[in-house]
Amino acid sequence: MILHTLHAMSPSASFQDCLRTAQPEDTIVLLGDGVYNALAGSHAADLLAANPVRVVALDSDAAAAGLQGKLGDTPVVSMDDFVALSEHYPRHLAWY
Amino acid sequence: MVIRQSPYGSSLARAAVDLSLAMGAFEQHFDLLFMGAGVLQLLPDQDSAGIGLKSIGKVLSSLPLYDVERVYVDADALLRHGINADQLVLPVQALDTLALQELLNSADQLVSC
After folding, report:
1. A17–B110 C-beta distance less than 8 A
2. If contacts are CB pairs under 8 Å, which of residues 36-65 in chain A contact chain B?
3. Residue B58: left if φ>0, alpha if ψ -120 to 50, beta else—which one?
4. pLDDT in tens, B18-77
5. Which of A40, A83, B44, B70 could anchor a disulfide with B31, C-beta 3.0 to 4.6 Å?
6. Which of A13, A21, A90 sits opposite B101 (nearest CB)?
7. What is the CATH number of the domain that holds A44?
8. Into which CATH architecture does domain B2-106 fall?
9. pTM of the full structure
């Protein structure tokens, strides 16, 4: 069980390797530039949707990027939710 | 410990190597995993004198002296960069995606840089 934080935009080795190593019980949190990966209709969003891993985006970073309402099916989480996730998962891996 | 940065593109590679040496010196038991551009740190013949930096490859080759013996690399990254696992500065074990997932999930803690 791993909490992945994905800071990198697709296409990149970080994006690819994060998706490749994440398993169904993991969660990927999109942070910083990583939120652009959830932009509905983008190639990256399609790749994320095709993956069985749960993907969420940090609301403050998504809002900063102007992505409110543009994230398709990707739920946003608050900083408090993010902290709760970090407590839930025993391991964390940062991809930037 | 997951190492994913190229050796001289930023100071992160050196920081990761320093962390490995410190953990080794304090007898912490850990595995090293090189992924992505991190595998480029393992190329032999790094001569970094011209850029005023210490050779990451040379420092890495000293890791067995610090009792760091379990070094793994992402087989996919080796393939992507056209690198042969038996021509690196350290003896390494190449892992496929499934083995990578198992290794990551077997760790008590993960550090990635």
Report:
1. no
2. none
3. alpha
4. 999 999 999 999 999 999 999 999 999 999 999 999 999 999 999 988 888 799 999 999
5. B70
6. A21
7. 3.40.1260.10
8. 3-Layer(aba) Sandwich (3.40)
9. 0.91
